[in-house]
Design goal:
Layout lengths: L1 H5 L5 H15 L2 H35 L5 H11 L2 H21 L2 H33 L1 H13 L4 H13 L4 H19 L5 E3 L5 H10 L4 H4 L2 E3 H12 L5 E4 L24 E4 L10 H8 L6 E4 L5 E4 L2 E4 L1 H10 L3 E4 L5 H7 L8 E4 L2 H11 L2 E5 L5 H7 L1 H8 L5 E3 L5
Parallel strand pairs: 1-2, 3-4, 4-5, 5-8, 9-10, 10-11
Antiparallel strand pairs: 6-7
């Protein structure tokens, strides 16, 4: 089951069911009979002893004599007729044999699953719902914050135990393990190092957060997301709210200029500036198209919301807005960039005053160069967009080629 969760990355419930089928399929008929025989014999033996004890106590009560139930139970066990013992054993064997023949692996699993659900399933399900509500509403974080304020971050373990104890008072013990999960997450997020997930996505924060949430990212982590599109949006609202613009990029990026969409012009001659969020879907591999499109408009300013030149989608390499901006710059045009490696997005996304910062990323042109520009420490993820270059030439030469330095290197990074 653990292998299915950790290595095959299956859902825990699916892994549990598959594990049950594996165990059920590998269990021999003889072992099933022995197990059920022991179960039936134990149950019938207890029932017989309880029956005899009840009769003996009834007789003693009629006589008005005092008695000790434990002593009577011991006596009854010793006095039980051997033939009765043999009969109980033979009956258990017959039941066990009948059970092994009439119950398949599937029927045993469904029976056990149904029995468990009947006993604690609803309780566990409700605990999961309550736990999810605690995390989503921020209640778990408030509980942890109050506990940490009381005892201090050095006594984090005490704060967590106290929070879990208080939460466990109104619920059953079994549920507490599930309800404690949001407390663990909230405690960890509160006392660990702070972080920002900085992305050169040319869209507002909320749009990217919705997308990442669909991919399974937790809401407490989503609060740390900041996009180059958000930085550009603040600049546009402040400086170009009423100016006409020509949008260069796919239609899906419309939410970036939703607040001033009436300023968007379809005729390039009528615009005051270019807003570049990417490439047109029809010309996403042809940079010469943009050279011809913009050749007569070098005097206009371009605002680029994603300085990345390329991005990898699986094994496919795609151009980004930065590639169009680079074409425009080489022609003599003026480009205002928002996103890594330019300072504005860092200044907006984090409070870096007197703080030691580590920037982690796979792009030497943006992630690592941005860290160098801001005087941050940095760590390059080697199996990213520069994977082939690093494997072929080595990290030292590749860093020299891109005129950047880095403090650390790691092969993979996962969340």
């Amino acid at each position: 089951m653990l292998g299915g969760i950790l290595w095959l990355r299956l859902h825990p419930f699916l892994s549990l069911i598959l594990g049950a089928f594996a165990v059920g399929g590998l269990t021999s008929v003889d072992n099933i009979e022995k197990s059920m025989e022991a179960k039936y014999h134990s149950a019938s033996f207890r029932a017989k002893i309880n029956e005899l004890v009840k009769e003996r106590i009834g007789e003693l009560k009629k006589k008005g004599e005092s008695f000790e139930e434990q002593e009577i139970r011991k006596t009854v066990k010793k006095e039980l007729n051997p033939s009765e013992k043999d009969k109980l054993k033979s009956d258990a064997q017959a039941k066990a044999k009948s059970y092994s023949k009439g119950n398949t692996t599937l029927s045993r699993i469904t029976s056990a699953f149904g029995s468990t659900c009947g006993k604690i399933g609803i309780l566990i399900a409700m605990a999961c719902v309550i736990g999810r509500c605690l995390l989503a509403s921020g209640a778990a974080e408030r509980i942890v914050r109050a506990a940490l304020a009381l005892v201090g971050e050095r006594a984090t373990a005490v704060a967590f135990c106290g929070s879990a104890f208080l939460l466990g008072i109104p619920v059953f013990f079994d549920s507490l393990f599930l309800l404690a999960i949001p407390l663990v997450k909230a405690t960890w997020l509160k006392v660990k190092k702070n972080y920002v997930l900085l992305t050169n996505a040319p869209r507002p924060n909320n749009s990217v957060k919705i997308f990442l949430e669909k991919m399974g990212m937790g809401k407490s982590i989503l609060e740390k997301v900041y996009t180059s599109g958000e930085a550009a949006l603040k600049y546009l609202k402040k400086n170009h709210l009423n100016d006409k613009f020509y949008h260069i990029g796919p239609p899906r990026d419309f939410d970036l200029f939703l607040d001033f969409k009436e300023n968007k012009k379809e005729n390039i001659d009528e615009c005051s500036y270019f807003l570049c969020t990417g490439l047109f879907d029809k010309y996403d591999q042809d940079l010469n198209y943009y050279k011809e499109l913009l050749n007569s408009f070098i005097s206009k300013k371009m605002i680029c919301t994603n300085p990345d030149l390329i991005v990898h989608r699986g094994e496919k390499k795609e151009f980004c807005a930065g590639s169009v901006a680079m074409v425009f710059e080489k022609m003599g045009g003026q480009v205002v960039y928002f996103g890594k490696p330019f300072p504005e997005v860092y200044n907006q996304s984090i409070d870096n005053n007197k703080k030691k910062v580590l920037a982690i990323g796979d792009n030497l042109n943006t992630d690592i160069k941005g860290a160098n520009n801001m005087n941050y420490d940095s760590m390059i993820i080697a199996n990213g967009i520069h994977k082939e270059e690093i494997q072929k030439e080595g990290i030292e030469k590749v860093l020299k080629n891109y005129k950047v330095v880095t403090n650390f290197m790691q092969s993979e990074l996962r969340w």
